[in-house]
Write a structure and sequence with these properties.
Blueprint lengths: L2 H7 E11 L1 E5 L7 H10 L5 E4 L5 H13 L4 E4 L3 H10 L4 E4 L5 H5 L3 E6 L26 E9 L4 H15 L2 H9 L3 E2 L4 H22 L5
Parallel strand pairs: 3-4, 3-5
Antiparallel strand pairs: 1-7, 1-8, 2-5, 2-6
Helix pairs in contact: 3-8
Length: 219
C-alpha cells in the first residue's frame, strides 16, 4: 500500500507479526554462503538467476535490492505460484530464491533445498546454524522481512486505536500465542501507532525506489 494512501485513507494501528526471508538454494548447489552466490554473479553477469512468486513480490524486490547492494546483475525468473517456485529451486530450474520458513519449509525439511543465509539483523529462532546475509559474505545490514498489521479507517478516534494496539500487544505477550507463532516461524511484532506509521513509510520508500528503478507497473 502506498504511504500516501495510508495517510489519506487509513490510520496505522499496530503490526501483529513478522518473519524474515532466507536465501534458498538447491540442495546440490555448490554455494555454501551468500558470498559464494555473489561471487558467481560477479563472475558471470546475468547468468546467475533467481526465482520469485511473481513480478513485484517481496522475493523479486528483495533480490533486486541484493543486486543493487552488492553491485551484481542477475536474471529474474518469475513463477505463478509459490509451490512451483520452490519446486523449481529444488529441481535446479533456478539458482536461488528468497523464501520464508513457512513457504520454503516443506522443501527444506525434505532435503530438497538449503538455507544458506537469513536476511535478518540477527540469526532467527529455530535456525541458529543459519548465518545472516552479512555474516555469510553479503552486504552489511541487509534485511528482507514481511509483516502483517492492522489499519483503521481515517478518523477513527485515537482512544479506539490505542485500545486496539494495547490489546494486541497484550495478546502477543501471551505464551500460548508465541508458541503458536513459533510453529509457523513467525515472531510477535508490536509497535505503537506512531512507530508503525514510520515503519510503513520507511518500507514504502525502500521498496518504492526499487519498483521505480525496475519500472514495475500495474497492468
Amino acid at each position: 500500500m502506498q504511504a500516501t494512501r495510508l495517510g489519506r485513507d487509513f490510520a496505522s494501528v499496530t503490526p501483529m507479526l513478522r518473519n524474515y526471508f532466507f536465501v534458498v538454494v538447491p540442495a546440490a548447489s555448490p554455494w555454501r554462503t551468500t558470498g559464494d552466490l555473489l561471487r558467481a554473479a560477479r563472475d558471470k553477469p546475468a547468468v546467475v538467476n533467481y526465482g520469485s512468486w511473481f513480478v513485484g513480490s517481496p522475493g523479486h524486490l528483495g533480490a533486486a535490492m541484493l543486486e543493487a547492494a552488492s553491485g551484481t546483475r542477475m536474471t529474474h525468473v518469475p513463477y505463478k505460484e509459490m509451490t512451483q517456485l520452490y519446486t523449481g529451486v529444488g529441481n535446479g530450474e533456478v539458482h536461488w530464491a528468497f523464501g520464508s520458513a513457512a513457504s520454503a519449509g516443506a522443501m527444506q525439511r525434505a532435503g530438497r533445498v538449503r538455507y544458506i543465509a537469513v536476511a535478518a539483523p540477527a540469526r532467527v529462532a529455530g535456525f541458529a546454524d543459519v548465518p545472516t546475509v552479512a555474516e555469510s559474505g553479503g552486504p552489511a545490514q541487509f534485511e528482507l522481512s514481511a509483516w502483517v498489521g492492522l489499519l483503521a479507517p481515517k478518523g477513527t478516534p485515537r482512544a479506539v486505536i490505542d485500545r486496539i494496539q494495547q490489546d494486541v500487544a497484550a495478546v502477543a505477550a501471551e505464551r500460548e500465542l508465541q508458541a503458536r507463532y513459533a510453529t509457523l516461524f513467525y515472531e510477535p511484532y508490536s509497535l505503537t501507532p506512531e512507530q508503525f506509521a514510520r515503519q510503513v513509510a520507511a518500507d514504502a520508500q525502500r521498496f518504492g525506489e526499487t519498483i521505480r528503478r525496475l519500472d514495475i507497473r500495474l497492468d
